[in-house]
Amino acid sequence: SQARERIHELVADYEATRASFFPRLALTSYYQRLDQDRMPPGGFTPPGQRLFDQESLTTVSAKQTIFKGGRTYYGAQAATLGTEAQREESTRTTDEIAYTVTLAFFRLLESKENLRVATEALQQRQAFAAVTEAFFRAGNVTRLDYLRARSLVADAEQAEMEAGNAITQGRVILATAMGLRDEALADDLDVRGDLPQDPAPGPDLTSLWQAVLRDSPEIKKLDLTLAQSQALIQAVRGGYFPEVSVQGAVGLRHQDIAGTKGEWLIGAFLDFPFFEGGVTKAQVAKASSQRLQLEEQKRARLNTLKADLATAWRDQENARRGTTTAKQTVETNTEAYA
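Given the sequence above, the corresponding structure tokens read:
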């Protein structure tokens, strides 16, 4: 999936950043021809001697960076945090898929229950229409009463048809949520279970919000992204500091006059770019701006999540109370008709 591939990409970024901790080995080789009449060292050539005009060199060099202003360390830290943030995004995607499938499951289950109720209602209204028709033929009721009974049957037939269509649609939605691409499997898809009859009261809104702040993968991702942004700021600020490294090389040099001889070198190097046209300052400003944007994005997302949670909690409580009221109404009507 896209989320997993994004994790692989971030892991590769981390490996690339971490590579700066290891020495760099390089093989260098060249061959060149020079002008024999070039200016010699010291401005003159002793009698009987001439300058070499061909040279070649093959060398193996190594460079180990000792200090880089924290760019490698904070860059690796930012890559690690980015990987963890993407893992939280993958978890959020998984939870969202589970929620979508669960929602589609209960919608299909509700559609089946609605079809059962609609079928029973149709049977009752058909029986009532038959009794009304008999009374009409006997002259006990008016034609208007008979037409009203037939109208109730037509309404029940329409409700049954709509309930059947809702089942077909629910199967398609559930199959899509589950990733089933075979239409035959979607047509035969069925669910079993019962709708909750006595939903228990949920926790209070404050407790739910605290649980969201503690366990939500989306909020964890936002926090990790902010930490990653701070690490990136520290990494680009490393451009203000010099780079210290130890370098060494060993090779073989050949000249057409002097012959062939091995050579080596080793030393410590300091590279301090004191002017680069303001590129480091611009990079720090960009990273700081991105962090401020992330802080604002987190603030806005928290407000949205809190509003969505309050709405869902209110809908759940309304549904629970509505279920209780409906059960009481059924008990009252049953007692009244008993």
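The chain has seven helices and four strands. Try to locate this feature in the token string yourself.
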